[in-house]
Structures
1.
Amino acid sequence: MIAMDADDQLRQRMAWALSQIVVITPNQIADIGYSEIYLNYYDIFVRNAFGNYFDILKEVVSKYSTF
């Protein structure tokens, strides 16, 4: 709904497209406990929608790396 009603509709659509490219799970996130993690992950795409793809990957790896 945000992508359809927000003032930055192009940014929201770009973030959604990026989230379809850099996929974290092939299944739906059904557990409510994991939804906050996914929203934080999605916010990376919103922040970097018009930025560099390398910056997106760098931020994803730095936040969600288990090393």
2.
Amino acid sequence: MKLVVAALIVREDKILICQRTEEQTMPLQWEFPGGKVEPGEDLKEALHRELEEELGIDAVIGRKTAAVQHTYAGGSSVELYFFRVDHFEGELENRIFHDVRWVERKELPTYDFLEADIKLVQDISVGRLL
């Protein structure tokens, strides 16, 4: 099972979402920024590193808001940990994604998110989370 961390970066009533490139697995689907945890790495440290690599920001990683385990139809499994991020330094820079957008919470379900994120997206959009 792959261990993954992701950020729920919040600004006013909007959340940052990112679209995978055509070359990635599950192409052009939307997700929250983050990535794989390296062996021996702390979850928050991993997320801080990933946000710097993907978006060029120095983020203050807040509290864990959700944990999800999901197995995709092809058999790959992920264990995802989501952390809230309210503050970061630096200018957001799209370094690896097809697109990056600030989206209002209620609009989240209109985007084609990764399967593992769908329940979380629904919870955020109706105000059950965050």
3.
Amino acid sequence: MADGFLLTPSQVAERLQVSVAWVRDHSTRKHPRLPVVRIGGLLRYDPADVDRWIAEQRAEGLRRAS
């Protein structure tokens, strides 16, 4: 988090082209799928963590396709 900027659930949803409900669901599980930063009751996301998660999902998809 080089510049301290964190994304909101809405921004992550837009970036992933999914609903905000999907982002919240995958962030609040016992073992969240999305890397999340909890600030009090707020959910926030480090852009670098989201990019890394996207890359991991892409790599997993390529492994499955092989």
